[in-house]
Structures are given as structure tokens and as C-alpha cells.
Specification:
Elements: E1 3-7, H1 13-22, E2 26-30, E3 41-44, H2 49-58, H3 62-70, E4 75-78, H4 80-85, E5 86-90, E6 102-107, E7 117-122, E8 132-137, E9 141-145, E10 150-154, E11 160-165, E12 168-171, H5 182-200
Parallel strand pairs: 1-2, 1-3, 3-4, 4-12, 5-6
Antiparallel strand pairs: 6-9, 7-8, 10-11, 11-12
The chain binds glutamine (GLN).
Pfam family, one: SNO
Family: Belongs to the glutaminase PdxT/SNO family.
Keywords: Glutamine amidotransferase, Hydrolase, Lyase, Pyridoxal phosphate
Length: 202
């Protein structure tokens, strides 16, 4: 069966591992380059994007991971993970890099101090069965959406908070902590489609 990796250098990777397992997906924590081998998808968790960026470089995961993403490996990023998948950032920390891939500009800590953290029920395109209870924790939003990217959900004020571009999925919020696994199931379906396609092309 396909194995989905969860980048496990910092952040709430355990919650993502559990959510994937609950969807029947074989999931593997990734801390070393060798653990990237043979993956059919990767999740980049919530946490602190500057720390994940730094540790990914320190552990020499950045270059191989970037190569896999460039080659079309399906990836899902929640919150800090969304930041890491963005091509462009507003309010990046000095020296902060992203892996990129998503043709969007993401604003870090966008919701500001007043609404540091909040929850909202949002309709998410591609997720059936009613709104998703979305938990935002010092969350980013998508400030600009490039031509290739599709907005799947908006915050109550109308900011894009879930986007998809081909094999890449990102949410400002954290479905890994609510017990509602529909977003992970959407990603698992993207991974399944990719596995089928690469098999067919072989
Ligand atoms: N504010 C964090 C950052 O910039 C993201 C917060 C989160 O992942 N919950 O990385």
C-alpha cells in the first residue's frame, strides 16, 4: 500500500500521523533523508514554519524533499505547512525559506493578535457532508492566489484559507486536531490518484 510521510522535525506531526492512520493510510514519520524514500505523499504539519524550515535544512531534508515536490509528489500542508508550500511569503522571518510549489502568496500570522486563535465552520470544496470545523492557531492566510491555484475555502471575512494546485493541498487551519478526518481523506484520495497515474504511465 502507498506510504505517506509526515515531516516530523517540529510541530504537530503526531496528530497528522494519527489522522492518516484513522483514514487507513500507512503513515511514516520523516526525520532523515532515507525516510523520504518510497513515499507516495508527504504531510507538512502545523508548528513554527521558521523552525521547520531551519531543521529541514539542518537534517538535510530540504533538497531531497524539494526534488520530490518538484517531481510531483503529492503534499498537504496545514498552517506552518501551508507557509512552507507557498512560493511567496509576506511577513517572513529574516532568512526564512519555503519549499514552494504552490503559486500563492501567504501572509504569516495574518489574523493578528486580536484573533490570535479562533474557530469557524467552513465549507470546503471537495469535502462533502457539511462544513468543516476549522481551528486557526496564529494562522496564515493566502494573500494572493496565482493562476494555477484553486481556492477551496475562505475564512468568515473572505480570505482564502484552503487552496489546491494539482497535487498540492494546503489549509490555514488544523483538521488534524479535530477528529474530523475528511480533509485527510481528500489528501489520501489525491495520493491514490497520483499512485494510479504513475502506475499507468510506467
Ligand atoms: N504562526 C506559525 C508560523 O508562522 C504557524 C502556526 C501554526 O502552524 N499553528 O509558522
Amino acid at each position: 500500500p502507498p506510504v505517506v510521510g509526515v515531516l516530523a522535525v517540529q510541530g504537530d506531526f503526531r496528530e497528522h500521523l494519527a489522522a492518516l492512520a484513522a483514514c487507513g493510510v500507512e503513515a511514516r514519520a520523516v526525520r532523515r533523508p532515507a525516510e523520504l524514500e518510497g513515499l507516495s505523499g508527504i504531510v507538512i504539519p502545523g508548528g513554527e514554519s521558521t523552525t521547520i524550515d531551519k531543521l529541514t535544512r539542518v537534517f538535510e531534508l530540504r533538497d531531497p524533499l524539494k526534488r520530490l515536490l518538484d517531481a510531483g509528489l503529492p503534499a498537504y500542508g496545514s498552517c506552518a505547512g501551508m507557509i512552507l508550500l507557498a512560493d511567496r511569503l509576506v511577513d517572513a522571518a529574516p532568512g526564512q525559506q519555503t519549499l514552494g510549489g504552490l503559486d500563492v502568496t501567504v501572509r504569516r500570522n495574518a489574523f493578528g493578535r486580536q484573533v490570535d486563535s479562533f474557530e469557524a465552520d467552513l465549507d470546503v470544496a471537495g469535502v462533502e457532508g457539511g462544513p468543516v470545523h476549522a481551528v486557526f492557531i496564529r494562522a496564515p492566510w493566502v494573500e494572493e492566489v496565482g493562476a494555477g491555484a484553486e481556492v477551496l475555502a475562505r475564512s468568515p471575512e473572505g480570505h482564502p484559507v484552503a487552496v489546491r494546485q494539482g497535487n498540492l493541498l494546503a489549509t490555514s487551519f488544523h483538521p488534524e486536531i479535530t477528529g474530523d478526518h475528511r480533509v485527510h481523506r481528500l489528501f489520501a484520495a489525491m495520493v491514490g490518484d497520483h499512485v494510479e497515474k504513475t502506475r499507468a504511465n510506467r
